[in-house]
Amino acid sequence: VFVLIDVPPAPTPAAAGGAGAWVVTLHANRGRGAARARAIMETDADLLLSVDGTSALAVDFLELTSPWFEDPKVAAVYGRIGQLPPKGAVDRWRGRHLYKLEERHEPQFVQSLASGGGLLRRSAILEVGNFDASLRHSEDFDLGERLFAAGWKIVYEPRARLTTLVSNSLLQVFERYWRWHAGVNPKFGLSGYLRHWWYSVKVIAAEDIRSGDLACAAMTLFLPHYCAWRSLGLRAGKTSGLAEIGITERGAIEDTRSDGRS
Length: 262
Known about the structure:
Blueprint: E1 2-5, H1 11-18, E2 22-25, H2 32-41, E3 47-51, E4 55-57, H3 61-65, E5 74-83, H4 89-98, E6 108-110, E7 117-121, H5 122-127, H6 139-149, E8 153-164, H7 170-182, H8 190-210, H9 214-220, H10 223-233, E9 256-257
Parallel strand pairs: 1-2, 5-8
Antiparallel strand pairs: 2-9, 3-7, 4-8, 5-7, 6-8
């Protein structure tokens, strides 16, 4: 078991080490792609169970995801994200529109990947080039496309649950919504902005109103403007790649490890 930290809060290394995990600390925050690429290189095991630091896996998560790997062409199985009981309107908005908690989901093969909590086949990921260490977001979407194109299977297993343990601000939730929908190379277009505005009013806000949640409906009206602003001001944010996170072409690891291994 290891914990990988790219934005280290002070208690985390000691807490993880005290629980028997080794700790890998990156020298700087270079984004989600860099962290996930490094995690893949950190183990020799072919199956890697991963979860983001602000979430917790259900006790039966591995029991529900591992049987899918009896199919040798399955590269990844990811679960359904949820949250604790909402503390306010922002949590309600996140649950309804980001996590889509009110919808019913069934296990299925999909063409995309969500890496916040899942079981991954390391050999398949390395075969297609690992997570793109230059991507600050959409690294899982990018990897999912490459896995699917190479003939690997990806499974969405909604019975396997992971729970977000923290609340977010409205801007943090909007930022996450934008990342999930913008893709690897976000682009702004007037027609796309107008379509998003129409969808936000006619579909998303309408759902809030049907739920009697006027506070969330008011938040929704700001969503297309935030997404347009982000797409105008920022592309996918490339970093310099694997070498900067301690991964050479041969997979050598150079950052700090609590167990002293090199």
